[in-house]
Amino acid sequence: MGVCASLNSTIKTKGDDEKTDVESGDIGEIKEGDNEDTVSAGSNERSDIDDIYVTVAIDIGTSYSGYSFCFKDAWMGFKATTEPEEKVPTVLLLNPDETLNSFGHDAITTFNEMDEVNRRECFYITNFKLCLYRVSKLSFQTTLKAGNKHINAMHVFSLAIKHFMTMACDTIFNHSDEQSQVSDINEENVDWILTVPSIWTDSAREFMLESAKKAGIMPEKLRIVLASEAAAIYFRENELLEMVPESEEETGTTGFKYIMADIGGGVVDVCVHEVLGDQRIRELYMSTGGDIGSSAINSAYLIFLESLVGREIWTEFRTLHRKSYLDIINNYEQVKRTFSMTNDESLRLLLNKELAQTFSRKTGKRLKTVVSANFTDDSVRLSEDEEKLFINQSLMELFFCPAVDDILGKINKVLVECNDPDLSTLVLSGGFAESPYLQERLQNNLQIETMLVVKNACSAVLQGALLLSDLPPDFIQRRSRFTYGFDVTVPYIADEHPESLKFSDEGSDWCNGVYDKVIEKNQLLEYGQIFIRKRTGQALDPEKKHQERYASLWRSTNENPRFCLANEEVQEVGVIVMTPPPEGWPDQWEAENRLIVGEIGFTVKRVDKNTGQEYETTMTFLQ
Prior knowledge:
Blueprint: H1 3-6, E1 27-30, E2 54-59, E3 64-71, E4 88-89, E5 91-94, E6 100-103, H2 105-113, H3 116-121, E7 123-126, H4 131-134, E8 143-146, E9 149-152, H5 153-173, E10 190-196, H6 202-215, E11 222-226, H7 227-240, E12 257-263, E13 268-275, E14 281-290, H8 295-309, H9 311-320, H10 322-338, E15 347-350, H11 353-363, H12 367-374, E16 380-382, E17 388-391, H13 393-418, E18 425-429, H14 436-445, E19 450-453, H15 460-468, E20 476-479, E21 483-491, E22 502-505, E23 508-519, E24 524-525, E25 530-538, E26 549-556, E27 570-578, E28 588-597, E29 602-608, E30 614-618
Parallel strand pairs: 2-10, 10-11, 12-18, 14-20, 18-19
Antiparallel strand pairs: 1-25, 2-3, 3-4, 5-6, 5-7, 8-9, 12-13, 13-14, 15-17, 16-17, 20-24, 21-23, 21-26, 22-23, 25-28, 26-27, 28-29, 29-30
């Protein structure tokens, strides 16, 4: 069963009705390699590598997106990775009927050339990736705002994925005939990889799986990889060995510890790894981060410009002079990329005469005169022709500080809580990682010995994703982001169990909704690991012998939740429905609940020890 297909398993929501003595819920743990053939929902099951000729990695970023591909046994034809400018802005323009008009630079140009009527009818969509981080309860019906309209978010993501699928296939199938394999390649010979931030919730990851399926990627052809891990693999394969002293060549990189921070336009992803003896990776600290990327700096600058002229004037300028508005943004982006703490002169930025003219027409005043009066210290001034804006170093830093301070805080917290003297290397990837100002602030304010930016920082995730395609799913040991457990029923204890969960049955008092913890938050997990809870019960009532039974899996942000109640911050994420055999359940029954660790998720399995019947489901997080 492929990963997307398995997420479509029928789910019913009802509490577990089985009764179990507390002592009977002993946990068992089966390590990888035991006799178990269940495929996890998160295993990203793929077709046989011998049948795959090409792998394509797609990275839908907040600010920029791209794809890369490689042929089996040969690195070649990287697209949108060798040079950062080859990536395209993550901008979609949809027609009124919600079909794709254009993407990237083409979308920007087409929209700018439209008249106001056509602009209002179309959907111009930017920064949509942040939706999957900021929306707490994602569903198939989640919408995005585009101007004054709303559109289904999964539809938008699927169009973006489909766009890069088409571009990749066009490039691959038209590739140089000098490659002997190319002539035999068709779409069935293509495997796909999607990158996602490691700090995304399970529902956001599932959302991407469903979007990819909607875009036309077969479940068995898809693998989801975490961006920070892809960047870490790229770093390991390209630069880590160069850091090993000659005196340690025999042991290589074993035991090397580092912080990897993937810092892009929207999301910052921070993780901590240790290289193991077999070149696998162990996560030392649960991944952290937030929506504190460089796009926040752009937003701060645009808010500043709006404050200079007023909201009404700024809105009119942005609407009627789209090209000039975008010229201002693009110019600021270029200045931002080279800004450094060592700048000792005012920064020159494009303003465009249309903004000054709109201001003069609306207020009867020159914008230059108003700015000079408001900034007597010359921290902000205009050129005589009002087409250039000059701001000083301190003001520019104010635009950077909120995002950079947050990034510093995240990394410093990791250092403090890890409290490991061997953790002294910080590795940066992502577009914003190339910012001189960010690098200087990190270097000056963190207690680290070594900080480096990976080569081709903008493309490290894409190229690392391709490297990951050749690694087995167990290449990394991860920390659980939640506490997982089963909903069980136990004998009621008056001083211990809530009255609201008490019920009586067959002459005894029971407590329903007890949280039977299986995996604790921050616990180290390995792919293929199986956790077992044994269950026993009885079915003496003739009516109950033919009733369905349920086993439900829950997760919590708390380390030790006691009950499946809202105040315990719990959420039901998977339910197994068990049908009775024709003769009904036996008087005394025995079963096992199994929680199986996959590559990016879990599979829940129920084994009826009386009949040998096996039931399986996967966790579902979309509403």
